[in-house]
Amino acid sequence: MNQEKSIKLKVVEANSLDPFKSRVRIDKETMNLLNLKLNDCVAVKGNNLAIGRVYEMREEDSGKSEIRIDSIMRENCGSKLNDLVDVFRVDPVPAKAVKLIAAGRNYPSLNTELLDFFKRLLYQTPLFKGNVIAVNLPGEFKIGGTANPLYRSVETEPDSTAVYISNETELAIL
User: Fold this and answer.
1) CATH number corresponding to 93-173
2) Which of 5, 81, 134, 151 has a CA between 20 and 30 Å from the CA of residue 144?
């Protein structure tokens, strides 16, 4: 990870459309400083590391040195609202393997067909080992009463870098 070009930003609440989507909203100036474009990945470092895809802030939010992230991203990076976090570009690599466990709830076990379905839904999801991610289920589909079941990555291969889930990733839910 290349942290030599990072910037400190104040954590503020995510936009109403962003929860459960690993989105990081920053302004154009910050994007330019970090040499980022839409959909690039950034690491957000508080007490831990989180990763998200870059989206642009609304124009009225620009120039405030803020980052808009949801509660899952705040949990992953170990921060809370109004904290200062370091933000820097990361280029995740395709994961060879990712192991997930249910985070906070006892979701039913998944058969092979459902696991393949989850893998398609998580395609290109960036993560670090230890991060919580949401599976955004379509339509009326729910697991454990929610359309956004949460899972924690307990193992990634490689394990010391940012990864994303690809078609070749071996996905397991324990």
Assistant:
1) 3.10.330.10
2) 81
